[in-house]
Amino acid sequence: MNHIATSKEELLNACLQVASKEGLQAVNMRGIAKACGVSVGCVYRYFPSKAELMGATVAKIWEQIFHMAEGCPAPEGFRECVTWVYGCIRSGSDAFPSFFRQHGAGFADGEKGAGRRVMDGYLGHIRGAMRTALATDAAVRQDVFSDDFTREAFVDFVFDNLLTLGGRQAESCDYLIRLIEKLIY
After folding, report:
1. Opening angle at CA 50, ends 48 and 52, nearest 5
2. What is the pLDDT of residues 124-177, one digit of tens each?
3. Alpha carbon 184 to chain centroid distance?
4. In this structure, are residues 7 and 44 in contact, taking their beta carbons and an 8 Å threshold?
5. pTM of the model
6. Alpha helices (H) in 27-150, listed in sequence order
7. Which residue has the higher pLDDT, 151 or 75?
8. Over 70: is that where the pLDDT of 111 sits?
9. Are 113 and 57 in contact, with CB atoms under 8 Å apart?
10. CA distances (Å), origin 102, targets 29, 60, 137, 166, 173
């Protein structure tokens, strides 16, 4: 066994391979150490707990999902942004088939807080981009949002539905797009 520390990036790449082939629940300290040919202590040097390993793995998967679309022009308008986000989610669902059903469940009960914070940080970035697309879409009716029907709540609703569709591996988000069109355009 190689007792020389491997890089954090190599460990995360092994985590991605395991998550892609066997699911997120198969990512663990011993398995990653074995996959990289290092001692378990080497893994702990970079990730002091399974929650940190899982959090970094989930963040890396989200990063890969949304960077698979590199080279794609930035979507113009909210409807186009939603379609683009779902395209990324679908590609991610193909690369990591069980990810959308399992990413919240991959943390042990005592570790859910730390893992959830990592995941929420990344998802918050995506929601922020969707809020910007909604706020800058000139085609959205001016009278549609109010104190009890806010842009923020609408984006949260749309994004939660995109994740649900991704978890079901739905072919498209066309129905959600039609709903958006009827509500805000």
Report:
1. 65
2. 888 999 999 999 999 999 999 999 999 999 999 999 999 999 888 899 999 999
3. 26
4. no
5. 0.79
6. 29-36, 40-46, 50-67, 78-95, 99-102, 112-136
7. 151
8. no
9. no
10. 18, 15, 33, 12, 21
pLDDT of 100 reads 77
Task: Give residue limits of the domains in the chain.
Answer: 8-48, 58-184
> Which two tokens mark 137?
């879409």
Closest CA to 72 of 56, 88, 59: 88
Q: Report the candidate in 75, 67, 112, 109 with the shortest Cα–Cα distance to residue 91.
A: 67
> Which three-class secondary structure state does DSSP give residue 146?
strand
Which residues make Cβ contacts (< 8 Å) with residue 132, sequence separation at least 6?
none
16-25, 56-65, 109-118, 121-130 — most confident range: 16-25
CATH (one of 2.60.40.10, 1.10.10.60, 3.20.20.150, 1.20.120.530) for 8-48: 1.10.10.60
Q: Name the one residue in this structure whose structure tokens are 């890089």.
A: 7
